[in-house]
Write a sequence for this structure.
C-alpha cells in the first residue's frame, strides 16, 4: 500500500508540475505576442510619421544639391 501511495503522489505531482509549466508557458507566449504586436504597431506609427516627413526631407535634399 505504501508503494501505491508513493506512486499516486508522484503521478499527481507530475501532473501538477505539467499544468503549472503549461500555464507559465501560455502566459509567457501571450506576453511575447503582446510585445511583438506593440512593436509592429509602433513601426506602423513610425512609418506614418516618416512618410509625413518625406516631402520635407525631399525638399531639403533638393535644395542642398541645387536641383530644385
Amino acid at each position: 500500500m505504501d508503494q501505491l501511495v508513493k506512486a499516486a503522489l508522484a503521478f499527481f505531482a507530475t501532473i501538477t508540475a505539467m499544468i503549472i509549466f503549461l500555464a507559465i508557458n501560455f502566459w509567457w507566449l501571450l506576453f511575447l505576442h503582446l510585445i511583438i504586436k506593440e512593436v509592429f504597431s509602433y513601426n506602423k506609427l513610425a512609418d506614418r510619421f516618416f512618410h509625413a516627413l518625406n516631402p520635407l526631407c525631399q525638399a531639403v535634399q533638393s535644395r542642398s544639391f541645387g536641383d530644385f
